[in-house]
Amino acid sequence: MSQSISDEVVGSKRIRFDPALVGSDLRDWFILLKPRVISLVVFTGVVGIILAPGHVNPFIALVSILCICLASGGAGAINMWYDRDIDQIMQRTITRPLPAGRLRPSDALIYGIGVSVLSVVLMFLATNILTAFILAFSIFFYSVIYTIWLKRSTPQNIVIGGAAGAFPPLIGWTSVTGTLDLFPVILFSIIFLWTPPHFWSLALYACKDYGKAGIPMLPVVKGARHTRWQILIYTIILAIVSLLPVYFGYTSYIYTIAAILLNLGFIYMAIKVLLEKQTLEGLSLNNDKAARHSFRYSLIYLFFLFFALIIDHFV
């Protein structure tokens, strides 16, 4: 006898689930892990492993990378579980598996917790307790401190919550050395300061979505003009901090040149965002074109900045 179709309320919307179809597409389980986010997170963790002093056991390195990947995915799944009510309001997230009714919330939560626990246990068995602790704390920080607490309560959610995505270089480094050092802390700081101008650029052109969902992103609470200034200020601070590896002698001319060029490009983008014309309602006349370009450039910026660290390390 087949199971009947059932309804479940998600936020303010009633979603119909067909037991014969829910969870049947493996792509939905993969999407739940936020693969686009994982790629950059894992890459910065790999950089931490490569830059760490001492011998890197290839097997341990692969397991560490897998654990960072699983941890990021597990936290992403928990994030999607908790945000399912606002995801079905926002245009850019309405097709995700939960608001679309392709996965049940309870299954997504169990899946996210299971993947997260697996990542921490594997990391502990393969490396050391310090690395496993930082990995576990990064999951807790993103899932609880950012997603459940900060995201819906303060326009500074991204500023504080930016730490969640900044842990991978620390995790990669400690998986090799078992100890912390100034260098990985600087790498943590770079990602931490990169996050606000990166996400605020997105928030500028997704402002209506965040407003409908009741998320107090900076453009929603303080307006576009204030946000544009904050993007420029944080980009300048980021440019200064990104040169700390040069100041402390961790890198040579290759990283120095790359960092200077990338920072000039990011500052240029931030200035374009600041100068973009606006209407009286605070919305751009050209649909926040500069903000969209800045958001895309920020992804290129972080990738090539950390890639320059690898090149500099081997030359």
Give descriptors for this structure.
heme biosynthesis; protoheme IX farnesyltransferase activity; two-stranded antiparallel ribbon; flat; mainly alpha; Tetracycline Repressor, domain 2; UbiA_prenylTrfase_CS
Structure explained in plain terms:
The protein has 315 residues and is mainly alpha-helical. The chain has two domains: 27-179, Orthogonal Bundle (Tetracycline Repressor, domain 2); 181-309. 69% of the residues lie in helices and 3% in strands. The chain has a two-stranded antiparallel sheet. A hairpin with a 2-residue loop joins strand 1 and strand 2. The chain starts with 5 loop residues before the first strand and ends with a helix. The relative contact order is 0.10. Residues 1-5 and 279-286 have low confidence and may be disordered.
